[in-house]
Amino acid sequence: MAGVVVVFDFDETIIDVDSDNWVVDNLGATELFDRLLPTMPWNTLIDTVMGELHAQGKTLHDVAEVLRAAPIDSHVVAAIKAAYSLGCDLRVNFRF
After folding, report:
1. Which residues of 20-31 are buried (b: 16+ CB within 10 A; e: fewer)?
2. Which of 44, 63, 43 is nearest to 53 (CA)?
3. Which of 24, 35, 75, 93 lies most in the core, judged by the most C-beta atoms within 10 Å?
4. Would you say which domain of life the source belongs to (predicted)?
């Protein structure tokens, strides 16, 4: 399988949730997020909420821990491992 590139989407494929919403909810910023949602574009909203979480003392480690707890379908894990074992070049797509 050399030369084969397999691209996985991260949100709602590798993990069974939207990572932005998952982090916001699990770090306790849902109320702020919901209040600001109608007032700004998505990327600005996420930047603003993450800035507020940082101001509250949340760290990159906290975000990583929340993402580690995101639900992952075992079939996706098996597919990634199978593609890797066949020598495929693996890529992950993140929406920005």
Report:
1. bebbbebbebee
2. 63
3. 24
4. Eukaryota
Written as tens digits, the pLDDT of the chain (96 aa) is 778 999 999 999 999 999 999 999 999 999 999 999 999 999 999 999 999 999 999 999 999 999 999 999 999 999 999 999 999 999 998 765
Give the DSSP letter of residue 33.
H
Determine the 3-state secondary structure of 89 from DSSP: strand
Which amino acids are annotated catalytic?
Answer: 9, 11
Structure token pair of residue 43: 């990327």
Q: Decide if 91 contacts 5 (C-beta within 8 A).
A: yes
Helix (H, G, I), strand (E, B) or coil at 23: helix
By the 8 A CB rule, do 52 and 29 touch?
yes
